[in-house]
Amino acid sequence: MTPGKRMVPLAIMFTDPSVAVIGKMPETDTSDTVVGEASYEDQGRAKVMARNAGLVRFYADATDGRLTGATMAGPGVEHSAHLIAWAIQTGQTAAQLLDMPFYHPTLEEGLKPALQAICKAVHAPVPKDRDDGFTAGA
User: Residue 89 CA to chain centroid, in angstroms?
Assistant: First the structure.
């Protein structure tokens, strides 16, 4: 197997809770960067698992909300870190990610408040939740 070229820096620490650092961290002058945060303190799945501690911080371009980096510490972040790296590599905005379905109950839906905060900061519309349910055969 030939390894693919990794375009976005990605570091995952398999600790408890897991920690991940993805992409570019903002410089000290963050006028061109907005930050969205989400805590796991009140996140449903994390509470049920008795692992509701941690914080996700997403960094995005202040003009359009395009993700540029993230720091994550919390339950299961090792599973979503590579998805965030993919989003950064493909130039996704917070609004575009929110337009994708987030299934319930998952730890990943705990990322939504950070993405919503970025949308609000850049005055982008916050897409409506897409987890309306699924009807077999529809």
Answer: 13
**58/88 Cα distance (integer angstroms):** 11
Q: Which CATH code of 3.40.50.300, 1.10.3720.10, 3.30.390.30, 1.20.1250.20 fits the domain covering 10-24+33-121?
A: 3.30.390.30
Instruction: Kindly list the domain boundaries of the chain, sorted by start residue.
Output: 10-24+33-121
Residue 111, SS3 per DSSP: helix
What is the per-residue pLDDT across 2-60, written as a single tens digit (0 to 9) for each?
777 778 999 999 999 999 999 988 876 668 999 999 998 887 777 778 778 889 999 99
State the burial class of residue 90 (Cβ atoms within 10 Å of its Cβ: 0-12, 13-18, 19+): exposed
Please state the pTM of the whole predicted model: 0.85
Q: Are 42 and 97 in contact (CB under 8 A)?
A: no
